[in-house]
Amino acid sequence: MFETPLPESLLSIHHDGSGRYIHNSAGLLLNGEPRLGDTITLRLRAAPEAPIEQVALRLCPDGEQQFLEMRPEPQAANPAVRWWSVQLRLGMPYTHYRFLVLAQGEAWWYNAAGLQRALPTDAANFKLLAGYQAPAWARRSVFYQIFPDRFADGDPSSNVREGEFEYRGMRSLARRWGEPPNASGWQSMLEFYGGDLNGVAERLDYLQDLGVNAIYLNPIFSAYSNHRYDVTDYENVDPHLGGNPALAGLRRALDERGMHYILDIVPNHCGFMHPWFQQALHDPQAPSAEFFTFHKHPEEYESWLGVRSLPKLNYRSEKLRNAIYAGSESVFRRWLRSPYGADGWRIDVANMLGRQGADQLGELVGSGIRAAVKGENPAAYLLGENFFDGSEQLQGDFLDATMNYSGFSKPLWWWLKGFSVSSHGMHGALAASAAWPGQAVLGSWNTFRAAIPWAMARQQFNLLGSHDTGRILSQVGEDMQMNRLAAMLLMTYPGIPCIYYGDEIGMSGSTTAQARACMEWDANKWNHELRGFYQALARLRRSAPALLDGGYQELYAEADTLAFLRDSPGQAIIVAAQRGPAAHPGLALNVRQGGIPDGVEFREQFSGRRLSTASGRLEIGSLPPGAQVWLADIAG
Questions:
Q1: Using omega within 30 degrees of 0 as the cis cutoff, is the peptide bond preceding 287 cis?
Q2: Residue 109: beta bridge partners?
Q3: Can 400 be counted among the known catalytic residues?
Q4: Eight-state DSSP code of residue 472
Q5: One of 33, 385, 400, 504 is an active-site residue; which one?
Q6: Is residue 359 flagged as an active site residue?
Q7: In the structure, what pLDDT confidence band is assigned to residue 636 with cuts at 50, 70 and 90?
Q8: Whole-model pTM?
């Protein structure tokens, strides 16, 4: 398809939802959280030499197209930028918009996906939420994921004993701390090492020293397995983890340190041994029978992906909805209250919740959960598991974030180790022989950011691995340079970073079973250099305005190299990453495209190297495999 070549200067056109681009009527900087009825200023940035003749904001109030002409602002102190702006009164809870740019006699559309000639749909428009309740504390957090049975044993008296109980015809196994998991199949779910909530509380000083200020706990409610996704009692913490008193104690210990935590809940299904299901299994007229879907009682019932030990909950039942989220004493509400005071929830398989064939109740259930959680604590962080596209649940009416596998992790994995996909029940995987290019990484990240409001993008839950994946060090073939590169991108990309326990000391494991090994507490076995690197990254992530509240703009992409800009009023951070194995011979970044003038001095945060911009470029030169973070103070 023929297209007019894009003038390089038009690459400088930029807008996102961060504070440099959205003001309120008092001139205060916003970050995607205005109120209904507010008058805001929307701004578009470009280089002064960009041949722009006219700019208009394109809206669709109440479904009808509207254009508002934008005006150039007086010349800024920064000579590398020219600003266009327009005022807009927010009359709807959800406002989407894009820009029409006339340049050199031609029309260009600019939306969250970038600059284009073709008429776009509204799907990738910029999106503003008015009156949205955002968990501001979460955006200033570095999370740490803990698999409770494998993190720390604070009370050996509560440990599961060898053969203590039987489940699915198998007996529980008690392992010594540090032994590698060695059971297979279902038996592996019954290997217990003794980690508990008292152990977590005892290690908070370690986490605080690392730079962590928030914890995500895998399920802690009573269950038969070590992962506890087969919940048998939503009302009580598993006694083997210390019971309810241990969770209350953890809350107090976190409060003493100004730290937060979120719990993991499984509202999509419960465990086979949950009293609700056992009653329904034995009596089709039991009060809880309507909580499940029996195709042929009692043998055939709906379960999670056909796993019979995990019967699926049926949200057509109003009684179930009241018990899980809608009622005043519901599960979602209760654990947000004192003395437990959870700061939010991670919802297991949120992509499947309330969905069952002809019954597609995800919107009903999602909005109900949000109303209950935010009604109990407006600052609660509502996170959902979704390995795929969670954008429908990220429009302000359900989740605050998803575990950002597709919008961050997967593209990064594929770039570092090769493209490979699979699905449940599939034998093997579909893999590409060619290396996945950097252009595809940035393109994928951009696609997923463009599909959601900026308020969501800046609080997406970014991760390099979890209890459901191999560890990042193994993902990159034990290559420490690529491991450090991945950690640097985690801490600098828009969103909330989460460290999987032990990654910071160099723990490895290519399978999920190996990735759930016991935390190594023998400091002689730690990679101290790597831990120090994580500490420095966490400090940077929690202190740099450009990373906390800044925007995002791509600067460079080729097969082995990518670079992007994070900018806020007064600060610019450039991140450059090289996959290798060879160094980039001479990287020169077009920083004028990012509104950075000549003569600005950047300092690389880990080497101390200093460079100044000249002729619109930052001449990094040879970029070795790994990543660099360049920081500068900047006006305008």
A1: no
A2: 100, 116
A3: no
A4: H
A5: 385
A6: no
A7: low
A8: 0.97
